[in-house]
Amino acid sequence: MFLSVFDMFKVGVGPSSSHTIGPMVAAARFLDHLRAQPFGVAGVRASLHGSLAFTGVGHATDRAVILGLAGLRAEDYDAIKAAAELARINAEHTVLPSGLGPLRFHPKDDLLFDYGPALPGHPNGLILRGVDAQGDVITQVTYYSIGGGFVLTDTELATGEDTDTGPAVPYPFQTGQQMLDMAAASGKSIAAMKRANELSRMPSADLDRGLLRIWEVMNTCIDRGLKTDGILPGGLQVRRRAKGIYDALLAERGVNLSAPHTINDWMSTYAMAVNEENAAGGQVVTAPTNGAAGVVPATIRYWLDHVPGASASRVPEFLLTAAAIGGLIKFNASISGAECGCQAEVGSAAAMAAAGLAAVLGGTVEQIENAAEIALEHHLGMTCDPVRGLVQVPCIERNGLGAIKAVSAASLALRGDGKHLVSLDVAVETMRQTGADMSEKYKETALGGLAVNVPNC
What we know:
Elements: H1 5-8, E1 11-13, H2 17-35, E2 43-50, H3 51-54, H4 61-69, H5 79-92, E3 94-95, E4 103-104, H6 107-110, E5 111-114, E6 124-131, E7 137-147, E8 150-153, H7 154-159, H8 176-186, H9 190-199, H10 204-227, H11 242-252, H12 263-279, E9 283-285, H13 295-306, H14 315-332, H15 337-340, H16 346-360, H17 365-377, H18 395-414, H19 424-437, H20 450-453
Parallel strand pairs: 2-5
Antiparallel strand pairs: 1-9, 2-6, 3-4, 6-7, 7-8
């Protein structure tokens, strides 16, 4: 299955790709399902299951479903418009999607958090229903939000349906070894092969504009986070720290007060700026998820601002390389914290960032694959245990450390010749197996780890 760079990097809204963007996508798909029916419906209902229920309030899943059923989309989300529409729905108990409305929907009665066993297909499940005037269900669809804003119906998940109907791509690598072999045979870099695959589906100008747009949103998000302070929403009273750290770092420049390891603070503050924006419900880019959205942009910003010879003209090469690695991880394992823990989110992001950085620093294909493997290997076993189900603790700092690991992994790989014992494919498969063995308490349910050991009231 072809995964575009714009599948791995999607402009959306915080705080979660699986719990916010995915449910909005599912709601939009359900509206299309209703529009295609020969009969009309009088109202809609929704139920959240598994991780979507347990951490749904902290991740704004309820809000996402309500607004999605009203026809709003994550990619052009307007916070002011959304707040006004949410207030209207709560007052009038109807949603007004184009081509269907008004449809009866009372959030208090028609949105259910089901804390029983998860649905069989995936920990992130939701069922959307259309009802008649008497309130009887006349159509329903089960959706799974499988991470990174990707959504499948139960049928698509069960049958392994490949919804990609585009032409064959010239470099259809599905494993790290295939990627290495195709690079050796073609003489092309990972970014060049990924670009050729993208160009089989879109014009060059569209690809270039899209990549520029992705970096612009990432960079703007960093800048916004570096200028904003205050307390994050959700009740934990988590204070934004990126601005304070950034201001202190700027003040120290040129004063010879900083130790060499202060460079880690720069990387961390770039990443934290993004994830503080995500936690506040701001516009971010999934990279590959919202919970891990700070690692890739922080690594790019570190490279541009602190590495001699860096050029913004090579950011597309970074993004294409990173997307190729992210696609391998998603295809062969998971990028979902609810499925495999945070190793699948920040671990995947660090692997993507390490590969991208190694590429723009002149690494060979073998060194790039090694960089990705090092970064992923040293996130193996990382749990997803958000306090109060909010994408704040430990998520914000974890992105900073993920960026530091990504840079260290790239640096280590570039010190070698690309030969190494553990392949990227082995690391990915190990991550998949580790996620399967991991207790559900540590997979975005807020039922274990920090989520139960940190006072959150």
